[in-house]
Design goal:
By secondary structure, the chain is of the alpha+beta class. It has four domains: 1-138, Beta Polymerase, domain 2; 139-220, Hydrophobic Seed Protein (Orthogonal Bundle), CATH 1.10.110; 224-355, no CATH class; 360-416. It has helices spanning 3-17, 27-34, 49-55, 104-109, 132-138, 147-153, 156-168, 174-182, 192-204, 207-216, 244-254, 259-269, 274-283, 288-298, 310-320, 322-336, 341-353, 367-372, 379-394, 401-416; strands at residues 22-25, 42-45, 59-63, 68-73, 76-82, 84-86, 98-100, 119-120, 126-127, 140-141, 171-172. A hairpin with a 4-residue loop joins strand 3 (59-63) and strand 4. Helix 7 (156-168) packs parallel to helix 9 (192-204), helix 14 (288-298) packs across helix 16 (322-336) and helix 15 (310-320) packs across helix 16. The protein starts with a helix and ends with a helix.
């Protein structure tokens, strides 16, 4: 048993010894039953939050208003939540109030999908009042109770349902899928950051399944700005007889699991121009670093690395860095030459090992060396360093101090003469 799981069971044992019910609950139970790796363990208990805090020396009142306390153990951080039912949801995310209850079944009834509404006790018995195990066997995503009510409580559950279907490669039960389609507009009340996080999990797991479901349910319009291709089945900008969103789904699933790269592929596939890309990234509240990496990748959309010369490779590395070049090569291969994807990745790795110059700091002489050699201080120093860098990129074996000084003097002499 891994340390993280041992810590979770220790919390259960402490709560039970104090006379409370306690169970592992939610995703950790689901993933155990599926034989998947478990990364987070949540515990549900009949103990009130104040009782939980008294039983453990290190706790954080993470969401004490809603019954959640984080217990800190050497094995990790665990969320422990009191059995509860939820009151009215005013913001489409959290209930205005919760009512603590003594019934595990009542607590499980408020959860989103049957496969997440199971609890596992220390006795090894799975408490499953809503048929989650049957739905796991049937590979089915089904809402607990009335799906429209579940989505009205928290509209993000619609995206979560599609993410689970994509990650687990399950089908969404027809009534649940119909409710997602009918209630898609509720996503407008959800914070963009929460939408972004779910979208990115899909993008990094199984976009080939997630994107078609997002289109079918009309949730996609609430993730990305509506490009011209959104509803036009007859539009064929790639000349392949296929809708651009279908290509986006296929291409992203073919690509290495890298977030900036997969974003760039989607934006390219649906042919968002630069202003729309900027708008999409802003609306999704992407970090500055992620936006920069996506833009750097998109600079390669018109490049064909299969035609680059040795100097071209060295220039691209010098101008953009190895990560951007790698993503640019992957972008080209995924869109235009899938058979070359692995070979281009290998080429980037191999050529990067022999790159003579990554920045001006890699020149074998410094600005001070040029000053000592009699080059006047000022902008001329910087211009000469840039010129020497280009010379080294064309002559990679010549990056030696005396050779560079001699070349600099030759240029200065020719200009003064």
């Amino acid at each position: 048993m891994e340390a993280a799981e041992q810590g979770a069971w220790e919390i259960v044992r402490v709560l039970e010894r104090a006379g409370h019910e306690a169970y592992l609950v939610g995703g950790c139970v689901r993933d155990r039953l599926l034989g998947r790796a478990v990364y987070d363990y949540d515990i549900t208990t009949s103990a009130r939050p104040e009782a939980v805090m008294e039983l453990f020396p290190e706790t954080v009142p993470t969401g004490i208003k809603h019954g959640t306390v984080s217990v800190l153990l050497p094995e990790g951080r665990y969320e422990v939540t009191t059995f509860r039912t939820d009151g009215k949801y005013e913001d489409g995310r959290r209930p205005e109030e919760v009512v603590f209850v003594r019934s595990l079944t009542e607590d499980l009834a408020r959860r989103d999908f049957t496969i997440n509404a199971m609890a596992l006790g220390a006795d090894g018995v799975v408490r499953d009042p809503f048929g989650g195990q049957d739905d796991l066997q049937a590979r089915c995503i089904r809402a607990v109770g009335d799906p429209a009510l579940r989505f009205a409580e928290d509209a993000l559950r619609m995206l979560r349902g599609i993410r689970f279907a994509a990650q687990l490669r399950f089908q969404i039960e027809p009534q649940t899928l119909q409710a997602i389609t009918y209630e898609a507009g509720l996503l407008r009340q959800i914070a963009r950051e929460r939408i972004r996080d779910e979208w990115q999990k899909m993008l990094l797991s199984s976009p080939d399944l997630a994107l078609p479901l997002l289109r079918e349910t009309d949730l996609l319009r609430h993730i990305l700005p509506r490009p011209q291709t959104f509803d036009l089945q007859v539009n064929d900008p790639w000349g392949r007889g296929r809708d651009p969103w279908e290509l986006a789904a296929e291409w992203t699933s073919r690509a290495p699991v890298d977030l900036p790269l997969r974003y760039a592929i989607v934006f390219t596939a649906i042919q968002l121009d630069e202003p729309r890309v900027t708008k999409a990234m802003a609306e999704l509240r992407l970090s500055t670093r992620l936006k920069q990496r996506i833009k750097a990748t998109l600079r390669f959309t018109t490049e064909n690395p299969l035609h680059w010369s040795d100097v071209d490779w060295r220039q691209r590395f010098f101008q953009h860095g190895p990560d951007a070049v790698w993503r640019g090569c992957c972008l080209y291969a995924v869109l235009h030459a899938p058979d070359h994807l692995k070979s281009l990745q290998f080429t980037v790795e191999t050529r990067a090992k022999h790159q003579p110059l990554w920045s001006l700091q890699d020149l074998a002489l410094t600005g001070q060396d040029l000053l000592t050699a009699g080059i006047p201080a000022g902008p001329a120093i910087g211009r000469l360093q840039q010129r020497l860098a280009q010379w080294v990129l064309h002559n990679p074996a010549r990056n030696e101090r005396e050779v560079l000084l001699a070349q600099a003097r030759t240029w200065m002499d020719s200009e003064s003469g």
